[in-house]
Amino acid sequence: MGDRESKYVTSSRPVNLRTAMRDAAPPDPPVNTVLRDRIAAAQARARLGSPLAEQVRSRAPDATRLQPTAIAAALFATACGAAALFALIQGLPLAGMAAGAGVIAGCFLVWHAQRRPPRAPAGEAPPLFDHASLQALDRMLAEVAVEIPEHIALQLAEFNRMVVRLSGQAAVADGEFTLEDRMYITECVRRYLPDTLQAYLAIPSDRRDAVLLEGNRSAADLLAQQLELLRGELEQREARLARSAADSLLRQQRFLQAKRKP
């Protein structure tokens, strides 16, 4: 039989254009990125605990205390509100508008003052971890939580607990706990752990358990070793920080004994 013209359709069964599209595979449903992120956050919370930023902020002594600037701004907004009400009663529109602007400005100052992290009192060391670094690490942990095996999830959960413990201590550099120790703890949260997790995620998921490296080590094995290394270094610095606090208490005792009358 000769070649058929291209405008003709041939089939082993009758062709029905109305039902032809029914046999085609349905298109993939659209991905809801917001829902996906929420699911990832819930899985991270279940495997690794609450986000670090929430835990550290809840342990901060000044987390809910009003700042002096916020108190002054609140008093200013209250006075402007009273002035605006008085101007409204007296029928003074310009004065009322000015007082209303003062109320808005005062509310903005209250919000801005409470939004900023509280400053450390004079003589005290600033916090070990800033809020932005903790939030960035939380996002990385939420991304990696669904990609790691259970034993690595346990390591990360222990790392998180150690970070929370360290955040509640006054890390003042002295002879026992040095400035280098303080910088290592800070950089561990800001850079060392996120870089380690990012390097792990860069490897295709189907190759992370395969032997890729020398010494018969897989990507998962190497990640576990690096997490253990970070944990060990943090434990050493946590012990130095405890000894530093004990030395401070001992110095205070010696001071009190020296002040005791004979």
TrEMBL record:
It comes from the Bacteria. Keywords: Membrane, Transmembrane, Transmembrane helix. The chain crosses the membrane at residues 69-88, 94-111. This is Uncharacterized protein. Residues 1-29 are annotated as: Disordered.
